[in-house]
Amino acid sequence: MNPHADTPVLHTGTSLAEARGAVILLHGRGGSAEDILTLASPLYREGVAYLAPQAAQHTWYPQSFLAPREANEPYLSSALAKVAAVVAQAEAAGIARDRIVIGGFSQGACLTTEFAATNPARYAGLIAFTGGLIGPLGMEIHHEGSLAGTPALLLSGDPDLHVPWSRVQETAAEFARMGAEVLTRRYPGRPHTITGEEIDHARRLLEQAFPTTH
Asked: What digits encode the pLDDT tens for the residues 22-51?
């Protein structure tokens, strides 16, 4: 069972065939590819392709990201495979992983961090707008491999209805151990949303990943 296998992948910005880099954006539970792709405007960089896969029935996996992993199968494995397929699509167009940024909000942010930890490489950047590694609190979140200096941005409100700040901290520590260059920002009392300040942080990451060419 692979529920996300045939869902669409939306695209804006430069075509993959002509792009110098790619940004993969993952929507949250109840959201859509159209929703998350609106970030392409404030995060625009010339010559970059923006890709947003759609989750089946608008959710990547049915339970909390803190549930036992088996409670979210086969949806979670299918979601990770969907991200892998979009990364492979960019790579097939000649865009190496060190020119691919992966980012997401909420459930999409959790998927972003889990994909990077289980598929470690030097990415152009990782952006988690309120999310962290997937699995129950207190679990061992050690992963093998290196993120090799990947810039990783972890942003979250505290308290958050869905994502405990402790998991954001654990994710930041694990990413740093894997060799990422991690920046975390905690926003006390911030509702479950993306703020302008967080978008500014993400914009700066993209400016460094894809500097102006002229």
From this structure: 999 999 999 999 999 999 999 999 999 999
